[in-house]
UniProtKB/TrEMBL annotation:
Name of the featured protein: Jumonji domain-containing protein 4
GO cellular component: cytoplasm; nucleus
Membership in a protein family: Belongs to the JMJD6 family.
Annotated catalysed reactions: L-lysyl-[protein] + 2-oxoglutarate + O2 = 4-hydroxy-L-lysyl-[protein] + succinate + CO2
An example Gene Ontology molecular-function term: 2-oxoglutarate-dependent dioxygenase activity
Taxonomic placement: Eukaryota, Metazoa, Chordata, Craniata, Vertebrata
Residue ranges of every copy of the JmjC domain listed in the record: 106-260
A biological-process GO annotation: positive regulation of translational termination
Organism: Callorhinus ursinus
Source taxon at top rank: Eukaryota
Length: 382
């Protein structure tokens, strides 16, 4: 990140005035396709897609050097089963059954990759049918992915190593119009059941999804909080990655507050009779969401300490424009520190976080916030 991009980003968040950055001003009419790596910079991506929080697709030119695209795929563009068996056959993998629903997800089992590939070969030979149902290996989305938004309102990217996918995107907030009369989200947004106005009374208020077909080698950027569903159009292997940065950190915090409120509402009848009710709500939240307020603080602390270490070195050298190559640069670190400081200030002021026992923390939240605010002030004009 250069100084101009950092100034652009900080101006963007000042305009938000503390509101979550998950929404989009106007839903784009299409998903942009980024053709050439030579004419597209990180600053272009940051300003054009991360900050406005809209999806895009990168061409296969961005991944043509990936070893997985050479080794995991046959010359005909199909999964290279023999290579996968030789290198990963004894790996235990989680596999979900797409034909069975448990609430809004699929039950999972564990098996060796070689057993899964044996099933996959039989499934293909059986005309894409099996008495065992349609099984898919976790993180290699080999069938339809149920309608969802990515974990913790993270960003994500998904690269097709081979195969093709059809994507359906709904911008943040649109999913509310897809809820059924009981408040649940649909498992499949293409199901004819959504046409039933009694079951889905708000469906008529939902705009059509953004749709795209992802080809082999292409990378889809999935913005924060965008609900989406994916259909595989043929045998497909994909690599996916989720991440949080300064652009969507506040979205993650907003999501966690919503998760805690949902837990508190579910167990509200025991508030006056259950000892340590607030603590139990945090325990339940962690069980349901994978993280609670205490762990979110430690998540912020780890990132903050790394950014502060880098900035301390840069401030000592007086070189805030020093190049870090493909790594984290000082301007990016300064931007991240400013975003962490804003989110941490909200965390520290939150009544439910104030009920968390922080006495054993190695660094008290207020002390960390003070350190961050001092560095924000020191780097504001650099």
């Amino acid at each position: 990140m250069d100084r101009e991009t950092r100034a652009f980003a900080e101006s963007h968040f000042r305009r938000l005035r503390g509101r979550p950055a998950g929404g989009v001003g106007a839903t784009p009419g299409r998903v942009d396709f980024i053709e050439s790596p030579d004419s597209f910079s990180y600053a272009d991506f940051f300003k054009g897609y991360l900050l406005p929080n809209v999806p895009c697709v990168f061409s296969s030119s961005f991944t043509e050097g990936w070893g997985s695209r050479r080794r995991w795929v046959t010359p005909g563009g199909k999964p290279a089963f023999e290579h996968l068996l030789r290198n990963y056959g004894d790996v235990v993998v989680p596999v979900a059954n797409c034909g069975v629903r448990e609430y809004n997800s699929n039950p999972k089992e564990h098996m060796l990759l070689r057993d899964y590939i044996s099933y996959w070969k039989d499934y293909i030979q059986g005309g894409y049918s099996s008495p065992r149902g349609c099984l898919y290996l976790k993180d290699w989305h080999l069938c339809r992915s149920p309608f969802h938004a990515d974990i913790f309102r993270s960003f994500s990217w998904s690269v097709n190593i081979c195969g093709r996918k059809r994507w359906f995107f709904f911008p943040p907030g649109q999913e509310e119009a897809l809820r059924d009369c009981h408040g649940g989200l649909p498992y499949d947004v293409t199901s004819p059941a959504l046409l039933d106005g009694r079951l889905y009374p708000m469906r008529k208020h939902c705009s059509p999804p953004l749709e795209l077909t992802q080809e082999a080698g292409e990378m889809v950027f999935v913005p924060s909080g965008w609900h989406h569903q994916v259909h595989n159009l043929e045998d497909t292997i994909s690599i996916n990655h989720n991440w949080v940065n300064g652009c969507n950190l506040a979205n993650m915090w907003h999501f966690l507050q919503q998760e805690l409120r949902a837990v508190q509402q579910e167990v509200s009848q025991w508030r006056d009779t259950m000892p340590d009710w607030d603590h139990h709500c945090q325990v339940i939240m962690r069980s349901c969401s994978g993280i609670n307020f205490e762990e979110f603080y430690h998540f912020l602390k780890i990132i903050a300490e790394r950014r502060l270490l880098l900035l301390t070195k840069e401030l000592g050298s007086g070189d805030m424009e020093g190049s870090a190559g493909r790594g984290l640069g000082p301007q990016q670190a300064a931007f991240d520190v400013s975003r962490i400081a804003e989110v941490l200030a909200s965390v520290v002021a939150h009544p439910d976080f104030q009920r968390v026992d922080t006495s054993v923390f190695s660094l008290q939240p207020g002390e960390l916030l003070q350190q961050l605010e001092e560095v924000v002030a020191a780097t504001a004009s650099l």
